[in-house]
Amino acid sequence: MDAKLKNNLATITFWVGAGLVMLILGTLLGYIFYHGLKSIDWQFITAPPETVRAGGGIGPQIFNSFYILFLTMMISIPIGLLAGIYLAEYAGRSQLAEGVRIAIETLTSLPSIVVGLFGLLVFVNATGWGYSIMSGALALTVFNLPFLVRVSEESIRGVSRELVEGSLALGATHWETIWRIIVPCAFPSLITGIIITSGRVFGEAAALLYTAGMSSPPLDFSNWNIFSPTSPLNPFRPAETLAVHIWKVNSEGLIPDLRRVADGSAAILVLVVLSFNFGARWLGRLIQKRLTAV
Amino acid sequence: MKKRLFYDKAGHGVTMLCAAFVIILTISIIYYIGSKGLSTFFSNEVSLWEFLFSDQWRPDRSPGEGGPQVGSLAFIIGSISVTLLSVAISAPLGVIVAVFIVEIAPGWGQRLLQPAVELLAGIPSVVYGYIGLSLLVPVIRSLFGGGGFSMMAGFLVLSIMILPTIISVSTDTLRAQPVEWKHASYALGATRWQTIRMAIIPAARSGLITAVVLGMARAFGEALAVQMVIGNTREIPTSILSPIMTLTSAITMDMGATVQGSIWNSALWSMGLLLLLMSLFFIMIVRCVVRRGAV
């Protein structure tokens, strides 16, 4: 076989490979939305789930997912941002920096079920909180933190050095420069990174099975007292998220309209995650434009 | 003036503290999972040999009947085999697509494929599990017979899940290669395929190995998607159509149902420890490969 023919065959193989990936993606999204969008209506999005009868919704699960995401981000953004600033601005090639990098690599490749087990030991059992939103949010913080540190470090390294040197030359301290110049300049890419990691957190389930739990108490959405066990805002109640709900319904569900609930939940989960992804890019570009086109 | 300098010092201190926190967190995860996972061998006095190399899993049997036995070999084999099979599909396909994106695709191909890979990465793992369960399992059942819930369903789902990892790491590596080598190869009269095979791929080898190892790590640790499609029987698989159980799926299914401190529960923690050690092992491989590649 001559080289030309081989080259052509190889080219065809590469095209087929790429086409296959597009086909897989198309099938997946088409399948989810074709089946899912049929079963979504207002009642489904807002009603509480049923345990044995048909016609239940996923209202509390959607709320729980967003609430856990919110708490997780409140805890992990400050730590992740500050650790990222340290790596980009102070650490250099110190031993501590090397240690942090190894730790981040370790945390990133840790199976999420192991993070869940750690959460069960420390946040659920040792603190005595039991299965709770707070335990879940802390477990997700562990899961999320390495990505946030990386995002912050990269965003901060992306800020142009001339700007930083200019600020230092004017007599600002290093910290003032970081806080007034570097962080604001890194803001667009920080926001993009944070929203994309939010998408990951929103879809995560394995780390939540044994921390936030697999059930929700009956919730009274007019009860805003965060210490009441029926208040949706109480961070020390168990909470099943949307992703966990999909898993639970499929593995031990007893409801007759299981297929409808699973289809609808999967479609909503994917929709939210995708809109996080697209929203992040859009918002990043928008802020960038606002900041630079003045 | 003093205040400004104080803030400068404090800022340095606080950021250092947060960075140190990441290290402390990692160490405490290893410590807690480690001490709990080792209790099988110290408190329950199971031999390490039995745990790793026996396929007798009867944790609920009374001592009178010869139990309880916690040999996890079947789960270990299950985890290793789905991981290897999924990588066997994903590694070549992933590298092909990465080369396509970097070397072959016209502009629109890149603009289409890059976001497609990101979308694949963004789909949550329970959704992969659910699609596997409702689409793939029935297809396998009607094509090959059997129950459909099988090792095959497991590694097919996993191979799609780890594809984005392999593609994106490979793409980054290929992009980072010096373009002169490629030009030199073309100047010698090589075809594009010859250039890819003899110059581009060998040069990027360490990065490509890293991509595959990271994919393996992800496949080995994935829990829910696998648990949903593999059927979960506690036996050593005999064919790719047999239902199996993996370390992660055993933990997922039984952890909530067992009593703290019982031998069954302890054995599950040991499996968690095993997962942790495997992921540390994968990181070590990556670090070694990268270091050697840099020389």
Automatic annotation (TrEMBL), chain A:
GO biological process: phosphate ion transmembrane transport
GO molecular function: phosphate transmembrane transporter activity
Keyword annotations from UniProtKB, A to Z: Cell membrane, Membrane, Transmembrane, Transmembrane helix, Transport
ABC transmembrane type-1 domain: residues covered: 62-280
Classification via InterPro entries: MetI-like, MetI-like_sf, Phosphate_PstA
Membrane topology field: Multi-pass membrane protein
Residue ranges crossing the lipid bilayer per the database entry: 12-34, 66-88, 100-123, 129-149, 266-284
Main location: membrane
CDD domains per record: TM_PBP2
GO cellular component: plasma membrane
Superkingdom of source: Bacteria
Pfam family, one: BPD_transp_1
Subcellular location: Cell membrane
Record-stated family: Belongs to the binding-protein-dependent transport system permease family. CysTW subfamily.
Name of protein: Phosphate transport system permease protein PstA
Automatic annotation (TrEMBL), chain B:
InterPro entries: MetI-like (IPR000515), MetI-like_sf (IPR035906), Phosphate_PstC (IPR011864), Phosphate_Transport_Permease (IPR051124)
One term under GO cellular component: plasma membrane
Described purpose of this protein according to its UniProt entry: Part of the binding-protein-dependent transport system for phosphate; probably responsible for the translocation of the substrate across the membrane.
Family per record: Belongs to the binding-protein-dependent transport system permease family. CysTW subfamily.
Topology within the bilayer: Multi-pass membrane protein
Entry's transmembrane regions: 12-33, 73-104, 116-137, 143-167, 207-230, 267-290
Organism of derivation: Desulfoscipio gibsoniae DSM 7213
Record's keyword terms, sorted: Cell membrane, Membrane, Phosphate transport, Transmembrane, Transmembrane helix, Transport
An MF annotation (GO) of this entry: phosphate transmembrane transporter activity
Domain of life: Bacteria
Pfam families, per the entry: BPD_transp_1 (PF00528)
ABC transmembrane type-1 domain boundaries: 76-286
One Gene Ontology term from the biological process aspect of the record: phosphate ion transport
Protein name, entry field: Phosphate transport system permease protein
Compartment list: Cell membrane
